[in-house]
Amino acid sequence: MFPRLEPLLPRVSKPVQYVGGELNATVKEWDSTTVRWALMYPDAYEVGLPNQGVMILYEVLNEIPDVLAERTYAVWPDLEKLMREHDVPQFTVDGHRPLGAFDVLGVSFSTELGYTNMLTALDLAKIPLHAADRTVDHPVVLAGGHAAFNPEPIADFIDAAVLGDGEEAVGEITDVIRAWKAEGRPGGRDELLTRLAESGTVYIPRLYDVTYREDGHIDAVKPNRDRVPEVVAKRTTMDLDAWPYPKKPLVPLAESVHERMSVEIFRGCTRGCRFCQAGMITRPVRERSIDGIGAMIQQGLEASGFEEVGLLSLSSADHSEIGEITKQLADRYEGTNTGLSLPSTRVDAFNIDLANELSRNGRRSGLTFAPEGGSERIRRVINKMVSEEDLLKTVTAAYANGWRQVKLYFMCGLPTETDEDVLQIAEMAKNVIRAGRQASGRKDIRCTISIGGFVPKPHTPFQWAPQCDPDTVDSRLRKLREAVNSDRDRSLGRNIGMRYHDGKPSLIEGLLSRGDRRVGRVIERVWRDGGRFDGWSEHFSYDRWVAAAAAELEPLGVSLNWFTTRERTEEEVLPWDHLDSGLDKQWLWDDWLDALDAREQDDCRWTPCFDCGVCPAMGTDIEIGPTGRKLLPISPVGIGSPVQNPALAKS
Amino acid sequence: MQKIRLRYAKRGRLRFTSHRDVARAFERALRRAGVPMAYSQGFNPHPKISWIGAAPTGVASEAEYVEIQVVEALDPASLARVLDAALAPGLDVLEAVQAGPGGLAERMEASDWHIELPGVDPDTLSVAVERLLAEEHVEVERLTKDGRRLIDARPAVIRAEVTESGGDTPGVGIDMSYPERSCGILRVVVRQTTPAVRPDDVLSALRVVAALEPPVPAKATRTAQGRLDDEGGLSDPLALDRQAGLG
């Protein structure tokens, strides 16, 4: 259907994002395949294209001979309007085929703020918004990604959800669909969904009934037929070396938010930061080996031509062989104009050594650390075990090694937080500047503090916490800004940059994160009222969400505040209690009580198991090195390129 | 150190790439192909690539030019082959020559554009083109980042004619998505000026002089660039390099 789309493209901004043609994209013959997936990242192409989850599943699925996978992204409102005028359906960018023709529409939700964009895509594709209205000919709408650990707010719109790692789950779902189609689609859509639920891999919301009590609380969530399990568990891919994806990273023609290739060096994190949903739901830690990493990087560079490689994970400096990995990669790619980067979050001198190694030949511009909380007390509450002394030692080492800028990440609105905790951020930043001036002997060093609003998330110890209201967050940020610029320390304040957003979007994210099925009506009303791209401040409308929440929730005896700023009790049935992340609920509750007492919890990677429950529940175990293996050098190096091409003749 | 000049095409759906998109794609393709590029010095080294006036976003081209510097002497034909294989289909390397004396940019005096107007009757188009050529000045409005700006589109137009068929230029053909409609085809030679007069500006000029409103957006392709000869034709800008290579 590209010929129908093409005349619209000269009339929209950045048309290249809709044409496909990325390097390493796959376009299969439609008729040569039996199970067809459309994979959506529900945000703009520039954000969605680099998403690792979609890239991995796209490749895993396309490697199956009779399976076809294509990608689709949210279209901007300018194209949406033209598509409606000219009756052009939501399309995939690979084959430019309408979404309605696929067997599965898989939507990857890194954040809940993509929910309205999914509705736009469904509507443009002429797929009924409500799962209950779909027929045997419509795709199975399947949610994945971290937000799928509580898909209840979108339960009306999706047919299915998968919790956790998708590499193996997509193959199993494909098998169920293939068999059902081969049998002539017996029992229609209902039988297909039941078979998916029966497999234990997939959560089918409509096969579970939610009942509510008079006070608005959930009474129970129960399966409404025999073949369906009471609880659906997350999926965990073990042995990352057996899954070296993406092998051929997609390289877009358009500019994207990550102009580099990424290699996931391990999955999972057991640092136990209590605010961090990713760290809780991706346990246990599974490392990729040093030679597995080395092979993926070389293969990826040859396939993509990228100039930079990011070593990704939730806390990359924690890989058991990170020192060897950085040193050996830096050796291997010296003189090839290939940059290596490590998202730095660990606050210790070791991290500086790694950063120095990776920037051997390049500029030392900025380093990023995430103390997350301004005061020692609040850092104990959130279990971010960093002392101010550690931080100052670390930044002193950074400035002494020629780094000129340090970026510090914090959160505002944490449980038990007071104004004083937040004001400590200003003190910390000033101490960083003082230490840096002394260490570097220069006045032009900088420290940027970046502050995000805290949103309590399901499957974390803070799932019971009251979310801080936006007015309090905004007032604390105002006071912090004043403290940074206070008269006495003006020269320090000039070297400190401050970045933050107001607290309103966080409250809506909070509603969507911890909401139940009743929140679906709010999402639909916002969308019908024009809500799109809620992750973009220029498109997000707080007032629209507040109005929709009032209109849809208050008649049911609940409210925006009921879902967000209210503290939950131990007895309360949480909307996601029937979805199992492996974490023992009693352990989470105890960790919540420890948080309130500012008591810390160790990391099981280096200390004995503390019984969070994941490994026994999921039949998994931590997979870490060291392996002691070495990377083979790539020879000869030093001609300015990491790739050798024998076909390139000398004259 | 060796300088190589390349002619490449921007075809099909890749006409929607911007110049920055093309530049990024080339840099990555050069790395994938293992081309030993020369890099600039400094903290942030860049491969040495000189672009010569790129076709606008949304416009296809059979005649784009770029010059690269490499640190080892290479056979230009084999470079063209491996680079073409490393680029996405639609960005196609057509020719590579070792640079001879003189700059490439100053050889680009004018461009030949081939503009398809699906749904526009060729006779209507001919009348509009006659009116345009009869004028000495035609001011058109262009939307830029800084707002609206007026430019005179007429003096840069050297030749304009309406043709019947798609011609024999590779990559250029009648849009088959509108088979039921007639398709006017405009060939126009436009001088490189500052500010540049683009195919869109020529179409705006036709709107001004003859109220020509194409029902769907036009498809433009640059078919040649080079030095103007006395008849309004264009000479091949790489001819001099080719001769120097033979001598």
TrEMBL record, chain A:
<dbReference type="InterPro" id="IPR006638">
    <property type="entry name" value="Elp3/MiaA/NifB-like_rSAM"/>
</dbReference>
<dbReference type="GO" id="GO:0051536">
    <property type="term" value="F:iron-sulfur cluster binding"/>
</dbReference>
<dbReference type="InterPro" id="IPR058240">
    <property type="entry name" value="rSAM_sf"/>
</dbReference>
<dbReference type="Pfam" id="PF04055">
    <property type="entry name" value="Radical_SAM"/>
</dbReference>
<dbReference type="GO" id="GO:0003824">
    <property type="term" value="F:catalytic activity"/>
</dbReference>
<protein>
    <submittedName>
        <fullName>Radical SAM family uncharacterized protein</fullName>
    </submittedName>
</protein>
<dbReference type="InterPro" id="IPR045784">
    <property type="entry name" value="Radical_SAM_N2"/>
</dbReference>
<dbReference type="InterPro" id="IPR007197">
    <property type="entry name" value="rSAM"/>
</dbReference>
<dbReference type="InterPro" id="IPR023862">
    <property type="entry name" value="CHP03960_rSAM"/>
</dbReference>
<feature type="domain" description="Radical SAM core">
    <location>
        <begin position="255"/>
        <end position="494"/>
    </location>
</feature>
<dbReference type="Pfam" id="PF19864">
    <property type="entry name" value="Radical_SAM_N2"/>
</dbReference>
<dbReference type="InterPro" id="IPR023404">
    <property type="entry name" value="rSAM_horseshoe"/>
</dbReference>
UniProtKB/TrEMBL annotation, chain B:
<feature type="region of interest" description="Disordered">
    <location>
        <begin position="218"/>
        <end position="247"/>
    </location>
</feature>
<protein>
    <submittedName>
        <fullName>Radical SAM-linked protein</fullName>
    </submittedName>
</protein>
<feature type="domain" description="DUF2344">
    <location>
        <begin position="3"/>
        <end position="199"/>
    </location>
</feature>
<dbReference type="InterPro" id="IPR018768">
    <property type="entry name" value="DUF2344"/>
</dbReference>
<dbReference type="Pfam" id="PF10105">
    <property type="entry name" value="DUF2344"/>
</dbReference>
